[in-house]
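Example complex used in Figure S2.
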Amino acid sequence: MFETASDYAQNVDFVMLLIVGISVVLLLGITIAMIYFVFRYSRKRNPVAKQIHGNVILEIIWIVIPTIIVMVMFWYGYEGFQRLRADSEGAYEVKVYGFMWGWNFEYPNGKKNDTLYIPLGQKTKLVMTSRDVLHSFYIPAFRLKEDLVGGKSTFIVLEPSKTGSFDVACAEYCGLNHSRMYTKLHVLEDSEFDKWLKIGMPEEGKKDETKTLPKDSVKTEAILE
Amino acid sequence: MSDSTVSTNGDYVNFYQYKGKHTGILGWLLSVDHKRIGLLYLGSMVTFFLVGMTLGFFMRLELWNPGQDIMGPQTYNALFTLHGIIMIFLVIIPGIPAGFGNFFLPIQIGAEDVSFPRLNLFSWYLYTIGGLLAVASLFLSGGPIDTGWTFYAPYSLRTGTEVIMPLMAAFILGFSSILTGVNFVTTVHRLRAPGMTFFKLPLFIWALYSTAWIQIIGTPIIGITILLVVVERLFGVGLFDPAMGGDPILFQHLFWIYSHPAVYIMILPAMGVVSEIIPTFARKTIFGYGAIAVSSIAIAFVGTLVWGHHMFTSGMSDESRWVYSFLTFIVALPSGVKIFNWVATMYKGSIKAETPFLYVMAFIFLFSIGGLTGLVLGSLATDVHLHDTYFVVAHFHYVMFGGTIFIFFAALHYWFPKMFGKMYNTKIANIALAIMVVGFNMLYFTFFILGYLGMPRRYYDYLPEFQGMHQFATVGSWVMIAGILLMFINLFLGLKNGKKSGNNPWGGMTLEWTVPSPPPLLNFKKIPTVKYGPYEYEHYDEVTNNVN
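Predicted assembly (773 residues):
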């Protein structure tokens, strides 16, 4: 059911495992200590409490060690994400328009479609904007999402590691049919992708959303130029 | 008036029996007694909590199957919006400070009332008016608001539903919050009993004090933001709507500058209650008093600098993203310090795990899960995947419900005998807690998995592959609600026919346990002089024998 479609997605899973792993150890430590103390120092076994006001060394230890742990977590979370976004030089660019309630993808050769096709062999940069309210382009298999904001452009970099079809959802609440704004991302071999790209508009024409676009679409498109 | 529970000072008139200028219902609605006002708040909050819970119940029911079960998408969207608005603005934010804070802050610092009793009553009226406006907005022509409790622009500017009225409700509730904050800060500064220095304050007071400052500093920002949205809706000024040259991300910044610190308004008072309950049932001084007190202030301060972590995918610059990620990890540290100190307090204690203590144990477990999954969300790579999915929903229910609301319940059970002079059935209370914890985890732990598998939040419909887990969570919601209802019924029966509890059933040391239950009108016969810290159990006999 749940796929990883890029090396980056595997990196996210690794960061997740790292943080969850450390967290489980901490959670078990806290819980077991608590339950042990409740039994070991129950009023029956230990009628008189020992008044301990604190311990400076312990306080220092449990500030310093968690600081180191969270800095490690921060670094792993930061590093991979920043690398992916910083390096989109020479990527294949597809324009993405979100609207209530659907998607429109526009290719460099002018081709438009409502599902997304990308080539396996190179990076694809999705340059996105919204035609109305906020939306968020979310591809679970790539562990990526980014909001589409009217009046400005945002981007996502995709680096697929295998071919296949993946779900795309809207993750920013956008009204009545927010939950039905699903579409598909198809990753194709480069040769197939080129073939697909050349297929004339008529065949894909019925999926073309141009006619249903709101009137200000010309203005919206200027944002991604 | 004689009361057999008050053997130490024969006859006294408790605050229920006291006859003021007004009697009957007016004796409550026009009372400036902090205890009556506290109970007014508690009554309102429990009512709103039950309403919010019912909305949640219907949301879970709708999600039994993909597609339509019992309501259309418009109704569902209104339900999750109202569930959020009610639970956050009407229950969790005011919950512990306005309810228990009003009742116990003056008593714990040895004062007769808060600094401004009339202002205090006025705050409750603002709260009530805000609540009523929110409810009234449901019946206006546009229909119930469907923006989500975050009111994100430009959707909130464009939806045809009634937005202005609930926004004004939130605006008024904000003033209630600010005025309560002002009142508490002044009271803590001016009305402490002789000998009660700042570092002899109970930790609940430290928590309320930190919270009050965030309320005073943070709330005006949300007030202004709300007004800007109203102005934009009414007059079409292009502040947030990109179609008119506005910036929707500006709205998110303004919203979270308040609403993230608000998370600490919600949790700090709960942490304060935990720091009261553990020493009482362990008969032991709190471990690291200074560290816990200072960590409250640290959370309040650093907490104002981390709002951007709600916006990692908003289109904000990449530099801002890592800066906010870094700061978010820093704010986790003082919360960790508190948890370690609480557990350390149990070491070599003399623990009697009665109902309030069991609630605290459940809290430490659930809140730790909430806090640790917060680390997952503070980390950039994982947050970008999990943002706006069920993982986030799970995280904040563990923190807000498993944290604040569980401690709200703990406080109800802890201070019940003090507030009402009666005791509930502790066995049933413990069973109710066990049922709640099981149902809670069935419901919300499932959300973590759903979220990681890519189930976005605020979804009326979902992919068929998620159905099994949605149904499991819905069954969990039934179990949890059964537990909650059992708990309230048990408390209600305790209120009606509970046995008299005595003044200090748990063996507490803070000042509220030295006055009769229920307390008299101005709390103390004679304002006490404080010699020791709040949990110095080596002086237990001396402090508690000096009963008022």
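The longest strand of chain A covers residues 92-99. Strands of chain A lie at 92-99, 102-106, 112-113, 116-119, 124-130, 135-139, 144-148, 154-158, 164-170, 183-188.
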